[in-house]
Amino acid sequence: MMTTLTQILRSIEHDAFPPPDLGVTVVSAPSAREACVMAFTAHTVIAAEVDAAWVAERLPPEDMVAPVAPPFLTALAEATGREAHCLDAMLLAPAQPASDLVSNLEELTDHTHPRIVRALQYRDDVRAYVDPYGGVVIVGRGVAGRLECAIEVPDSVQGRGHGRRLAQAARALIPADAHIWAQVTPGNAASFRAFLAAGYRIVGSEILFF
């Protein structure tokens, strides 16, 4: 099994997933900023400052639920001195050629927008763009250096396909050989619809610890 979270995520970008063996892989935290628990089909990856023996003592073998259930997450937070954030679904898409989707975007140099302020807390190399309707698309490097995006659609233009267009634009704002990740809270059905319509696919779930 691969030994770093970066290697695991890069492999997933090329359709090589952890084995669906009901197992748990423990790797080092990807950076001093965060740790995480990622769940894939019948396999969990724990990237944190704990060792495999500590994890094994707290998880029943071949239990897919226990690694993402509150008792273990609470124990992991206490062991690492971090706070667990919400459960997000992970979505992934390859780059697509630049198009008119990005021609009407203007890069923001004023990083006081609340969405940008939040992104700067969790990502590096953040770039933000606004469209003529006030929609925002943000691209940056997050967990294990992966390229991540976030979008925001103003209430005044909800339901008109702007979310899908912003999600597609994010795919055109990265290098041609790259992939981009998005994290969506499961209850945010509108965001799910936008990213799925923009060609992203669900590959797993994650809980970040900061």
TrEMBL record:
Keyword DNA repair set for record: no
InterPro entries per record: Acyl_CoA_acyltransferase (IPR016181), GNAT_dom (IPR000182)
GO MF annotation list: acyltransferase activity, transferring groups other than amino-acyl groups
SUPFAM superfamilies: Acyl-CoA N-acyltransferases (Nat)
Presence of the UniProt keyword Transferase in the record: yes
Keywords for the protein's UniProt record, in alphabetical order: Transferase
Domain N-acetyltransferase: 90-210
Protein's UniProt name: GNAT family N-acetyltransferase
Species this chain originates from: Kribbella sandramycini
